[in-house]
Design goal:
Layout lengths: L4 H6 L10 H5 L51 H17 L20 E2 L8 E5 L7 H10 L2 E7 L2 H7 L5 H10 L7 E4 L6 H14 L3 E6 L6 H14 L12 H7 L2
Parallel strand pairs: 2-5, 3-4, 3-5
Antiparallel strand pairs: 1-2
Helix pairs in contact: 8-9
Length: 259
């Protein structure tokens, strides 16, 4: 008889019945080991163990062609020749591959001409300047065709030396006048000189008051014009430039402070 709970509580136990001993003394059956999770390599075989078959080639991972067949690896004869042909065909297909191409991206406008903001009445637009003096006429025709009435060029003396027909600011302004801009609505500023920021903002305010589009442009359309455009947005759209850093934590703001 097995000891009762009361007997165990009192410390008295009776000898176990011989018929019970085998049940108590029988060892617990050994559990089968749990299968371990395994990582698979590029060849589909488990890593860190012997695969059930011939070992893979020393080359490691394999490349698959469009038909799912190996294009590199061991083997010889016709299989090796076919693999080389497939690999050469793949490399030829990838010869003109451009990883920066985005099929969903909108095409860039000519001269990167775009408004500083999405406001319906935005007066300030930015653009890239003409690449050479001979192109200024076509540049004027394009931006004026887009509605630009005023022009603000941001250039230093060394930039005007290569962009202006005669290498001077007067020569560049004359080329813009020949392209259809009014002389009173053309301004050229070196943004590196003191007071350039306030002068550019004054020109922008005049264009806004007249409800006319102002084309701010520089050599690459970004390095200088984007600074003035950002300052305009921070001043006219978001709020006072003195509080701009409370609204936008952007490196361009600190560049604006240097103008």
């Amino acid at each position: 008889m097995l000891p009762t709970l009361a007997a165990l509580a009192l410390g008295f136990t009776a000898p176990l019945s011989p018929t019970v001993l085998p049940l108590v003394a029988a060892p617990r059956a050994a559990r089968s080991p749990r299968p371990l999770a395994q990582l698979l390599g590029s060849d589909g075989l488990p890593l860190g163990g012997d695969p059930p078959g011939p070992p893979p080639s020393a080359g490691g991972g394999q490349l698959l062609g469009g038909d799912g067949q190996l294009i590199s690896g061991g083997g010889g004869g016709s299989d090796s020749a076919a693999a080389r042909q497939q690999e050469e065909a793949l490399l030829e297909d990838l010869a003109d591959f451009d990883p920066s191409f985005d099929p969903l991206a909108a095409p860039r406008p000519k001269y990167d001409l775009a408004a500083a903001s999405g406001r319906d009445d935005e007066c300030m637009w930015g653009a890239m300047a003409a690449a050479a003096p001979a192109e200024i006429g076509s540049w004027c025709a394009h931006v004026r065709g887009a509605g630009m009435v005023r022009a603000l060029g941001l250039f230093g003396a060394e930039e005007l030396a290569t962009l202006s027909p005669d290498g001077t600011a007067q020569g560049y302004a004359a080329a813009l006048i020949a392209g259809g801009f009014e002389e009173a609505k053309i301004a050229l500023i070196d943004p590196r000189v003191p007071g350039a920021r306030q002068a550019a903002l004054s020109i922008a305010r005049a264009a806004d008051a007249a409800k006319e589009f102002l084309c701010v442009h520089c050599t690459d359309g970004n390095s200088l014009s984007s600074v003035i455009m950002a300052e305009w947005i921070l001043t006219d759209y978001i709020g006072a430039a003195a509080n701009a850093t409370q609204h936008v934590y952007c490196g361009i703001v600190y560049t604006c402070r240097a103008l």
